[in-house]
Design brief:
Length: about 425
């Protein structure tokens, strides 16, 4: 049974050119490439709600010809709690999928499962999960565990599966410690998790260069986790919902709890009174009261991810007006790569990863700089620049990221050097800019 993906998570274009080359190479060498099954443990509302890269990676892995089955397992939930989930607007986006997960449900080739929680039987959820994996033949091929370290259940599951020959990939896309003060108990607990879990992993994917440098001391097979760019975001037609808004149209697409700089948003909108600022995504109830009274700011809330290309197609400029803080410096926003894949000019604050994209995006600090950057982006934008932005992130399709992961697993299992990751394609021309 297929559950249509809703919220900011969904399928990408099926571009398998890199995968085909890999298979052809294996065929030429006369070797039958190994097939794998993949198990992804839950990170943070990373399926159907926020459109995290974890979901897009899982979907791309399900399309890969050498992956037989992909599983995504959430932490245990007491089914009785679902009666109260309507109080959290996030769950309205994926309530059917969340309910069906208790039995296991397939979504575009990915098998989703949430074990029912039994508070007086602490190991029951682990037992149910292993039974589900056995029933679904997860161990029929070598199993690759993509382990998020921030959720205790995923770590417990990794230990439970330790004797089954599982290849474990520790994934730390963001530094969870950054959200907590130094010397706090929460920060020290997360530090202990990293120290305990990272050394035993066969491969570590870390989300920032700072994390790579730190975790290499714990595990030399630590590399920078490549970020995908969803090429399907360039395929939309302008959303009719936005057709009557004054131009230019400036869009933000993503969670509105994501440390947005409200003062920056309001100050920029006050300087560009002829522009329409549109905010699409979950947690609209958080932002809307903070920008009330601003006539040119439109907080429209969540829309299905499969329609997001239409909203980006209606926009003239995309923005990422995040606060600059230890938390936002601890993770590279995936939306920057999605915006570029759509061809849009991008204006962002100096969040993690922005400096590496400086030739493709505008970086601004305050409302004055941000408004000037938007005006500059509008003035300089041409079809040619849009094509250059799209070409720059084309090597980072989620299918290419999935192929790179499969190649990395091959290398780990064979004791070989890890392959080079996909990289941005920026012409080596002095002074080149595509922003």
């Amino acid at each position: 049974m297929r559950v249509a993906p809703v919220g900011f998570g969904g399928p990408t274009l099926d571009d398998r050119s890199g995968v085909q080359r890999e298979d052809q190479l294996s065929s030429e060498e006369g070797r039958e490439p190994a097939a794998y099954n993949v198990l992804k443990t839950w990170a943070s509302d990373d399926w159907g709600l926020y459109g995290r890269g974890d979901e897009l990676l899982c979907r791309a892995l399900a399309r890969h010809p050498r992956i037989e089955r992909v599983f995504h397992v959430q932490p245990p939930v007491d089914p009785a709690e679902m009666r109260q989930r309507f109080r959290d607007p996030r769950w309205e986006q994926d309530v059917e999928g969340q309910l069906r997960r208790f039995q296991g449900v397939e979504d575009d080739g990915v098998r989703l499962f949430t074990p029912a929680d039994t508070p007086d039987q602490p190991d029951a959820a682990l037992d149910r999960t292993v039974e589900f994996l056995e029933r679904e033949h997860a161990f029929s091929q070598p199993l690759v565990l993509l382990q998020s370290l921030v959720e205790p259940f995923g770590n417990d599951l990794a230990r439970r599966l330790g004797g089954r020959g599982v290849t474990r990939v520790a994934m730390i896309r963001r530094d969870a410690r950054a959200s907590h003060p130094p010397e706090s108990e929460e920060r020290e607990a997360l530090q202990d998790v990293y120290k305990n879990e990272i050394p035993g992993a066969e491969l570590v994917w870390a989300g920032t260069k700072e994390l790579v440098d730190e975790f290499k001391a714990l595990n030399p097979r630590t590399v920078l986790q490549p970020i995908g760019a969803d090429q399907a975001l360039a395929t939309g037609t302008p959303a009719l919902e936005l057709a009557d808004l004054p131009r230019p149209l400036i869009i933000y697409a993503g969670s509105m709890r994501a440390y947005l700089n409200v003062g920056l948003i309001r100050g920029t909108a006050e300087r560009l009174t002829d522009a329409s600022f549109v905010f699409v995504g979950p947690a609209a109830e958080f932002l809307a009261p903070l920008v009330s009274g601003s006539r040119n700011i439109h907080v429209i809330g969540p829309r299905p991810y499969r329609l997001l290309p239409d909203y980006l197609a209606a926009a003239d400029v995309a923005i990422a007006p995040h606060q600059v803080s230890p938390t936002t410096r601890a993770v590279v926003p995936e939306k920057l790569f999605g915006y570029l894949a759509a061809g849009l000019p991008v204006v962002t604050t100096a969040v993690a990863g922005a400096e590496e994209l400086r030739r493709l995006v505008w970086i601004a600090r305050d409302p004055s700089e941000f408004s000037r950057a938007i005006q500059g982006a509008l003035k300089r934008d041409r079809d040619r620049r849009r094509l250059l932005r799209q070409a720059a992130v084309a090597p980072l399709s989620w299918d290419a990221i999935a192929a790179h992961l499969v190649q990395s697993i091959d290398a780990v299992r064979q004791g070989a050097d890890l392959p080079a990751p996909p990289e941005l394609r920026i012409p080596a021309i002095p002074g080149f800019l595509a922003r």
